[in-house]
Write a structure and sequence with these properties.
- With 97 residues, this protein is an alpha+beta fold.
- The chain has 3 helices and 5 strands; from the N terminus they run E-H-E-E-H-E-H-E.
- The chain has a 5-stranded mixed β-sheet with strand order 4-1-3-2-5, with helices on one face.
- The longest helix has 13 residues.
């Protein structure tokens, strides 16, 4: 079953390879969506895919690369037909803030 989520990661997650790490994992899992830095220091993930792949992504969000310090993760489930999730392409890194 297709699921869609926004995930916010708090902690030392910028400038430590976190986006690159999640980008690789998202591609391996066949997810649609993106990962990007937010101005307040968090990382945002927008992901859509099969339930088991999304569950693995949650695990990787908690794991992160070795230099990351994850303090908290906030997961918001969304309707996968929501406009935000409608036109997602291959999992990518967004560089816009």
């Amino acid at each position: 079953m297709t699921k869609a989520f926004k995930i916010y990661i708090f902690g030392q997650v910028q400038s430590v390879g976190y986006r690159k790490f999640l980008h690789k994992k998202g591609l391996e899992l066949g997810l649609l969506g993106y990962v990007r830095n937010l101005e307040d220091g968090r990382v945002e993930v927008v992901a859509k895919g099969e339930g088991k792949a999304i569950e693995k992504l949650f695990y990787y969000c908690n794991e992160g690369p070795t230099k990351a310090v994850i303090e908290k993760i906030e997961i918001v489930e969304a309707n996968h037909t929501n406009k935000t999730f409608e036109n997602l392409g291959e999992f990518e890194v967004k560089t816009d803030l």
